[in-house]
Amino acid sequence: MVQPSEPEFEQAFNELYSTLKDSSLFEKHPEYEKVIPVVSVPERVIQFRVVWEDDNGVMQVNRGYRVQFNSALGPYKGGLRLHPSVNLSILKFLGYEQIFKNALTGLSMGGGKGGADFDPKGKSDNEIRKFCTAFMRQLARYIGQFTDVPAGDIGTGGREIGYMFGAYKQMQNQWEGVLTGKGLTWGGSLIRPEATGYGLVYYVEKMIEKATSGKETFAGKRVAISGSGNVAQYAALKVIELGGTVVSLSDSKGAIICQEGITPEHIAAIGEAKLKFKSLEQIKGEYSAFSTSPVQYIAGARPWVHVGQVDVALPSATQNEVSGEEAKALIAAGCKYIAEGSNMGSTQEAIDVFEAERKVASTVGGAIWYAPGKAANCGGVAVSGLEMAQNSQRVSWTSEEVDAKLKEIMVNCFNTCYETSVAYTAESNKSTLPSLVMGANVAGFVKVAEAMKDQGDWW
Which residues form the Glutamate/phenylalanine/leucine/valine/L-tryptophan dehydrogenase C-terminal domain (predicted)? Predict the structure, then answer.
């Protein structure tokens, strides 16, 4: 079930299983434990080669994948990641998390993930188009609006989705909502680029409200964010809109720290430059928005030990970006709320640090509260689901309509995590604040397990 050569998947599996065992779920419903070996094996794994021609006429080959993990709740749904690090372990971990994340949205979506070890950086538009066409030539036979609806992910933005959709349409001779993240003039949804970041902040907004009995909001909070892609950019903009101060962003090469607060002008410059695959170091040196404010760039660093006093941390870059030592540093810096905009953004050691601190807090106000990515960042796939609904109806909702639906989904997700944790926490382990990681895992797992049972996948 879990292979030693698949460390990321093993981590995701252990994180889910350990919290289920720590809850009272198997005590109250022992039959659920036999679902674990079933739900933890993908229904189907597709691997294929992608052969394409670069601008010099040289043949290139990449490995392509689609992990169709679980369809109990609906068509497989999950992104396509284009990055040199892509391998089966990473895609299985992402697909496994996606099963339960999608369940928490309340929408009819199964879980899957895919991609290739192709690096879009440094490639021309023509090369990217040729790769996307070759990739879709292999993938098209396995996907469809009622089967599997991929989306974007790292390395797969609107340009790549457009090329893939065009290739699919030509091959299948039909227009259908088979990919999400499409252009707004041809089936895309408003608020889709913003959704994961906005949803993350809406989730944390409920955490702050619940922990402080409605006495506090984001206003006046200092917020450390990692990453500088869509999730980080839009989370930062929403935090600023709600009165918080964003003190950091980062990329794979380093971090920027601004104690006075990163501004919307900074974020606009980053958004423009990242489309050209520029690093934060380059952006800081080249864009005028950074010349008039005290922004520090730290090469080779993640922001967590450099941000100073913070109230909220939002890891929004990639997996395992908060270590156990960095978790301790955040707590020492006064951080009270940690929520993942990235998938499995914290190592197991970091989660253990956050959860241990939550349990020993003497008061609710002094507690550390951690929210896992499968709950806190489900806004992105939620709006992908809303895009699917709009495509099926051949309609387009306004930004206000989509944003309202997104906020409702995130509020319901938080309430589900909170209430499930309260219901399944052993009496001897009751603490000032319930475990949101336990609540998310139990709630998502139970929903999927019940659907699988009804469909005869276990008995």
Answer: 189-456
Residues 208 and 114 in one domain: no
Per-residue CA distances from 428 to 22, 24, 146 (Å):
11, 11, 45
Cβ pair 26, 32 in contact under 8 A:
yes
With respect to residue 257, please indicate whether it lies within any of the assigned structural domains: yes
Residue 114 in contact with residue 80, Cβ under 8 Å? yes
Task: Check whether 196 is labelled as a binding-site residue.
Answer: yes
Annotated binding-site residue? 28? no
Is 47 annotated as a binding-site member? no
Domain of 120, CATH number, reads 3.40.50.10860
Coil, strand or helix at 51 = strand
Number of domains in the chain: 2
CB 249, CB 232: distance < 8 Å: yes
Query: pLDDT digits over 117-158, tens only?
Result: 999 999 999 999 999 999 999 999 999 999 999 999 999 999
Of 222 and 367, which is predicted with more confidence?
A: 222
> What confidence category does residue 3 fall into, taking pLDDT thresholds of 50, 70 and 90?
low
Same domain, 222 and 160: no
Among 149, 176, 203, identify where a domain stops. 176
Q: Is 113 a catalytic residue?
A: yes
Helices assigned H by DSSP within 309-377: 324-332, 348-360, 373-376
**Domain span holding position 137:** 41-176
Instruction: Quickly tell me which residue has 């005290």 as its tokens.
Output: 294
* Final residue belonging to a domain, choices 376, 409, 424: 376
Domain assignment of residue 6, yes or no: no
Residue 180, annotated ligand binder? no
User: What is the token pair recorded at 427?
Assistant: 């009496």
Q: Check the annotation: does 384 bind a ligand.
A: yes
pLDDT single digits (tens) 344-356: 999 999 999 999 9
Are residues 118 and 243 located together in one domain of the fold?
no
Same domain assignment for residues 149 and 206: no
Question: Which pLDDT band, with edges at 50, 70 and 90, does 360 fall under?
Answer: confident
Q: In 192-335, at which residue ranges do the beta strands (DSSP E only) sit?
A: 222-225, 245-251, 254-257, 296-299, 312-314
Q: Which of 92, 113, 123, 274 is catalytic?
A: 113
Is residue 144 included in any domain, yes or no?
A: yes
Label residue 277 by pLDDT band (50, 70, 90): confident
Q: Is residue 447 in some structural domain?
A: no
C-beta separation of 404 from 202 below 8 A: no
